[in-house]
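Obj.: predict assembly geometry.
Materials: sequence records (below).
Method: joint structure prediction, all chains together.
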Amino acid sequence: MTGQTQVRRGADRGPARRPPEAGPRAHARPNHNRRNRTQSISLHAIVVVVGAFVLVPLLYGVIGGFKNTQQLSTNPFGLPSPWVPGNFTSVLSSGSFWRELWNSTFIAVATTVLVVAVSAMAAFIFARFSFRGRELLFTLFAAGLMFPFAVAILPLFVLLRMFGLLDNPLGVILPQAAFGLPMTIIILRGFFRAIPGEIEEAATLDGCTAFGFFWRILLPMARPALATVSVLAIVASWNNFMLPLVVFNDPNWWTIPLGVQQFQGQYASDTARILAYIVIAMIPALGFYAVAERQLIGGLTAGAMKG
Amino acid sequence: MTRPRSRGRLRGFTTVLLFLLPALVLFLLLVVAPIAVAMYTSFFKWNGLRGLPTDFLGLDNYTRAFSDPVFLGDLWHGGVLIVLSLLVQLPMSLGLALLLNQRLRGRAFYRLLFFAPYVLSEAITAVLFTMILSPDEGLANQILESIGLGGLEWFAEPSTVLLSIFVVMTWKYFGFHMILYLAGRQGIPEELIEAAKIDGAAGWKVFRHVTLPLLGPTIRISVFLSVIGAIQLFDLVWIITDGGPSHASETMAVTMFQFGFKRFQVGYASAISVVIFLISLVFALLYQRYVMRRDLEGATTVLRDKR
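Observations (raw structure tokens):
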């Protein structure tokens, strides 16, 4: 076996440098090509099937939203006839959807500002100062990656009730920021570490304080990393369900995920109307994905590799 | 000589303290303390309404959990979801990542499409699939009936509900794992693959002996994330089935939420959340100790091997 590979390697070494068509393998090309084509067709088929698995539910939502419930059962696959835009317009003209959109936005932005600011400060210390117990502290934060809301939700609820933060956006913003710290600190620390020490020395020689270096040099240099962690924080906050569910009793504070669940309960039999609602509720998330795709994917892979 | 130095050290110390303080306060107060409180209250019988728990039960809440068929069912469901994720969802994501790594028409579009469900909240996903997999007039059953197969009961039947939940999980999360694998695959230098081909290795052999081992770290992270995700599953199940029918899709987090927020048995619910925490923690520690050790050690292993 080994002998054979040795020989083949020897034989291939010459032609391998030339363009592949010119080698002694040229006579085998037609056969090779046909195999390639069937292979590529079957690969395409797989991708198309999976693509349909992803896309059909979404399209069903969009198209179904333009039907009425009767059309949905008699004509499930075709285009709506006639098109019924009423489901969409009634959602868009209702105050509750816009209020939920505003609440979700406000909570996501506030959470993000808080978690990024606090994490950047901590990550700065973890990346560029050495003191006793640093690694221990860092490990404590990193271990927080494994703590989901589910574990802490009960005492968190008791605590928030004690502070009077139920039905208060701070009751969602503060815990979300706290639970976002581990991932944000880990990613930012990695980035801050990569900034060369010479820059810091030069700044210090020019009379820059630690805060001045952090504020005027490190943060502007870390803009891409800050964008990445901000995008992750926004998505996490936008999609959070469990915490708003226990904190907000008052519909005036509901976020989009709560509104979606509530709407389904309220109009259980009116499928088309619910479809219209969730399609509209998807738009901000998908739009944000379209804009921030690079930061989102970069952040997730970076977070996963370092976490 | 000593004075300026100690002043410098003092200033360094106050900088460290000031920069770390916000993160530390937020983290200790809203992440660590709640988990500690959950551990404390798990030893009591407590309705959580006011005051402090006084009715000490010792380990009774824990023994109750482990003799309750509902909780044992939760463990079983978690195990089933983990096994399904590892055997179906991850290989599917890996295969698609390798596929999309090749030159393929529409590759960028498919990548964008497959990842899109990850951006949507579990709440929206849950409501969408409640309607698509509805036993009466859902899209899935209409498709099945139009090709001559009988419809399924999906979420309405204890024997199919867990599989149906898994289908929804796959729809939402396979794209995320695919993106991780894609990043991992792009981190493998093309020279290594080419070298293997020149050595005479064909498709499957290249995958088995070159690509797969080099993807090891990514696979281990992806396994880790999907196990932790399955242990903590809540939103999807809560919205789609509430744990039913007859507890057939209940997860630990759902049971905890039921007892904590619906039946006001906060002591018992805390015991369940502590079990969730301990299972995640033990799994994470063992996994990092025995499975990811090689990734974390990295270069040192190579050195030791050489010696």
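Conclusions so far: The first strand of chain B starts at residue 44 and ends at 45.
To do: check interface contacts against the pulldown list.
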